Amino acid sequence: MGDSTKYSILLPTYNEKENLPVVVWLIDKYMTRSKLKYEIVVIDDASPDGTLEVAKRLQKIFGEDKLLLRPREAKLGLGTAYIHGLKHATGEFIVIMDADLSHHPKFIPQMVAKQKQGDLDIVSGTRYASNGGVHGWDFKRKLISRGANFLTQILLRPGASDLTGSFRLYKRDVLKKLVSSCISKGYVFQMEMIVRARQFNCSIGEVGISFVDRFYGESKMGGNEIIGFAKGLLYLFATT
Ligand SMILES: Nc1nc2c(ncn2[C@@H]2O[C@H](COP(=O)(O)OP(=O)(O)O)[C@@H](O)[C@H]2O)c(=O)[nH]1
Ligand SMILES: [Mg+2]
User: Using an 8 Å Cβ cutoff, are 127 and 165 in contact?
Assistant: First the structure.
């Protein structure tokens, strides 16, 4: 690898002060090792735990060109966090991932390699194919994720194996187009992106990832997200 292509990595954070330093350190380690040019855009939604202060300290270590801080005033949700981050990203490719260490940065170079092989529009990390997996989730959470994937597969036939995951690489312009065509704002956003991608005939590749449940902090997934997902799914089923 190793060229002048820049990868912008969007990290939405809400109460991730323990996780952020490790994620940033790992991203730097694996991108540098693979000679990939990158910038990280942290979108913090006024985390009460002081994530932003931690991010500011990291910025002093890694530099303002590597670590961009684009905070928002309040917890405005994941979907709009990506839109906000995308506005400020300068790379030709955008990586979207969680900041809670569930997504290991070591998979980014694999996604990059996959993208290059076929000049793909999207490479999606998958837990449900290609040796991917889930670790540390209880039965209920596994069931919710599997169930959401299963229902979506049946109703929408999206042509990707992991629809609720959020570890993906996009061509910047493809992501812009997808984002502006997506109407959902919550967790269902990830799923809608792949459904829209298929509508636009985007090429999608997959890389198996091992997803590890967060060790620090709490998941923001709850009943509201599940209801939101179900509503979004039905909407897409009715309209696409
Ligand atoms: N900026 C921002 N980040 C969020 C918000 N909700 C969740 N996140 C971040 O999105 C990622 C995924 O959230 P998480 O709670 O781990 O969801 P889970 O992995 O599905 O349980 C993490 O990096 C969170 O810090 C939000 O409203 N705003
Ligand atoms: Mg998580």
Answer: yes
